[in-house]
Design a protein that fits this description.
Strand order of the largest sheet: 1-2
Radius of gyration: 24 Å
Shape: elongated
Helix content: 55-70%
Structural class: mainly alpha
Distance between the termini: 83 Å
CATH class of the largest domain: Mainly Alpha
Length: 305
Amino acid sequence: MELTAAVEEYLTYLAVDRARSVQTVRAYHTDLMHGPLTFWARLARPLTTTEAITRDAVRAWQRALGTRGLAASSRARQLQALRGFLRHARREGWIADDLGGAIDLPKVPSRLPRPLPTEAARALLASVGGTTEAELRDAALVHFLLSTGCRISEALGVDRSAVRPDGRLVVRGKGAKERVVHLTPAAVGAIRAYLAVRHDREPALFLNYDRRSVAGGPRRLTAAGARHLVRRIRARTGIEGLRSPHVLRHTTATELLTITGNVRLVQEVLGHANLNTMQGYTRVVDAARVAAYEALATRLDPPEA
């Protein structure tokens, strides 16, 4: 099968059968088309069909990727994309051997989440609000994210009709999996205040208010728009740790784990399928406990004679 056509079919499979997000499918497209496919097309004997892929061709791409000075995480992401494609190609009968199984991913150093300290989170909630539609939208979104621990894509996919008076609502996460999340009373209040000043018929809970959006009529807030409004709040408040909407998800997870100590509960709140994903949060909480005990020891040390 022609390679480009095979990749396009694989991307369709990811989008339709696996319900992967638009961003994920776009990233796989870039990693495959501008990675191994471009490399193989420029060989002395170009490789353009799935039948022509060999272990040597896969290894040659791995070696070439290793010379590009990329971080281990970037190499791992690109190799993961190729491995997924090759395994799909084997299932479809486009290639005879399990070439995907021959790909070893580089070990990526684990990065600890960087949540906001509790006082910074409180200061953030105290700082949002106002009278304009955009200001009230910002407050509603910050409260929503800190209440639920949702990914920004999940929050932006919520319609206003989904918000119930008791603060419970269903969000659609990765792989189109649905879960129930809960809003705090303050978050419900912030959302009600926002909806009270809206006079549009848009179904989306969070709308975009930039000039281009307003010119074309109200529309759903995008991830890029959410990142921009978070940067604006960071510049206004001086909360350095507020670098992206995802920081608020880390913050919620860490606070919940600190309060409850229940890893399984926090996993369900966040919508993580794999319990191993929670290890970063447990390490953050454990480190905070150690620091607290060290501070207590220092505080209780008797004064030197």
